[in-house]
Amino acid sequence: MRFLTSLLLLATGLAQAQAPTPQPYQASAPLSWELKNARWFDGQKLQRGNLYIENGVFVAKKPAKVNRKMDLRNQQALINPLAEAHNHNLQTAWGWSQYADRYLDEGVFYAAMLCGDPAGVAAVRPLAARPAAPDTSFVTACITAPDGYPLAAVLPEPSPEAAAAQQQIVLVDGPEQAIEQWPAIKARGGAWLRIVLAHSERPDLRQQPALFGRLGLRPDTASELTRLAHADGRRVVAHVETAADFDAALAAGVDAIAHLPGYANTLDEAPEVFAISENAARQAARQHTAVITTTAATALFKLDAAPLVALREVQRANLARLQAAGVQLLIGSDVFIGTARAELHALDELGLDRTTLLRLATQDTPRALFPNRRIGCFEPGCEASFLLLGGDPLADLAQVDMPLLRVKQGRLLTRLADVAASSAQVSTSTADAPKAAKKKKAGKAKVKRR
User: Fold this and answer.
1) Which of 180, 388, 435, 445 gives a 20 to 30 Å CA spacing to 255?
2) CA–CA distance from 96 to each of 134, 136, 250 (Å)?
3) Residue 343 — φ and ψ, nearest 5°?
4) Taking the CB of residue 249, how many other CB atoms lie within 10 A of it?
5) For the Amidohydrolase-related domain, which residue ranges apply (predicted)?
6) CA distance 86 to 160
7) Distance of alpha carbon 181 from its chain centroid, rounded?
8) How far apart are CA 215 and CA 203, in angstroms?
């Protein structure tokens, strides 16, 4: 049996090694579409009717020339593409080469990368501008304390000397230094900056060398950076770990909070440390502070069963409290080897209402990432970007995992170069019944007399 198992493993390895590398996604020219008997998710339920697309947007009437006709027979379903509000895997050229096509595979057309450096992001921007690419926004000013997170993750050997020498993360130690460094922070560009709060209620942790690179800014520093950013017309997203960090981020006046408290418990603290209060939830709603969920990231920490159950219960309670207060939730995974689809399923497992979940993923989050665009909708004038699913995702969320078709701004996205190249040709309609062959009129038969 051991020999047979080894043989099977060897055969599997050889098969994987010989498997051809998938071709990258390509985009067709913008197509005109007629989608008859369609069903589409409008944020509340599935609507029914006909949809038309011309020049990259949905239109009210059938275009004069149609490249693609489809009769969906009220069986398949259309949803807008998903959005990823928190990741880091597309902020370098290497990461883009590894993961950009995975975003399209999984139907994620919009993404936010929250901690890139200006030079690395500059190399990625031309790639992100292509039609067959996820639309991506980048944060290029990521700010933490001199001993703060994520230095322990990005430095091979975390130390004060190594932290001072690196260029990816901006290190700020106090409000006065925030003011001094603001011109340099501003020069990094971007409409957003990211600040890190991690166990801000525990100043005693700064005396522990083992925690170097895992802490964050002091609350007064976070407040000063937020003030400077807002005065300069920029917005702020705050990384948080605990409920106290959540409160400090609200006190600073940030625009968004990255991480639901309780996404991780690296210091093995009591679950109550991560419980958001009802007052904090109401304050977040009043201040219009969005919260990026990132509950999928919990699986990365490989917790034992009991601690995992306790953490998941805190997450459920936090989600319920934020929803009850009317806080804007955004879908983000912070799973480097994944996309927002992992977060979609994680939230589904936590019991989030399916209709709400799909609305957050396909409407609220895309619009929050790109507020100046008409996306996440099927009305005339909306960008014609959608996924065609085999069935109703409200009844079966697994349908989202198997897109039958990916269309971005009217362009068909495909790994088949010849399909992309030929798609602009007027196609045979699948909406019209085949025309019956015309019967020849029978003439009067002439009887030959012999």
Assistant:
1) 180
2) 10, 11, 33
3) -70, -35
4) 30
5) 213-400
6) 27
7) 31
8) 9
**CA dist 387 to 40, 172, 283, 406, Å?**
10, 43, 36, 5
80-379, CATH topology level? TIM Barrel (3.20.20)
Residue 246: which of 226, 219, 228 has the closest Cα? Answer: 219
Residue 305 CB contacts under 8 Å (≥ 6 apart), including other chains: none
Sort strands 411-414 and 26-27 into parallel, antiparallel or unpaired: antiparallel
Cα–Cα distance measured from residue 277 to residue 436, given in angstroms and rounded to the nearest whole number: 69
**What Å distances lie between residue 273 and 117, 238, 245, 318, 407, CA to CA?**
32, 18, 10, 12, 44
Over residues 204-233, the pLDDT tens digits come to: 998 899 999 999 999 999 999 999 999 999
Residue ranges covered by each domain of the chain = 80-379
Distance from C-alpha of 94 to C-alpha of 434, rounded to nearest angstrom: 49
Cβ density class 102-137: b for 16+ within 10 Å, e for less: bbbbbbbbbbbbbbbbeebbeebeeebeebbbbbbb
**Sole residue written with tokens 């902020």:** 91
How far, CA to CA in Å, does 93 sit from each of 31, 121, 124?
30, 8, 5
- % of the chain residues with pLDDT over 70: 90
Select the more confidently predicted residue: 431 or 232: 232
- For position 427, what pLDDT does the model report? 56
Task: Give all strands (DSSP E) within 154-242, no chain letters.
Answer: 170-171, 192-196, 235-239
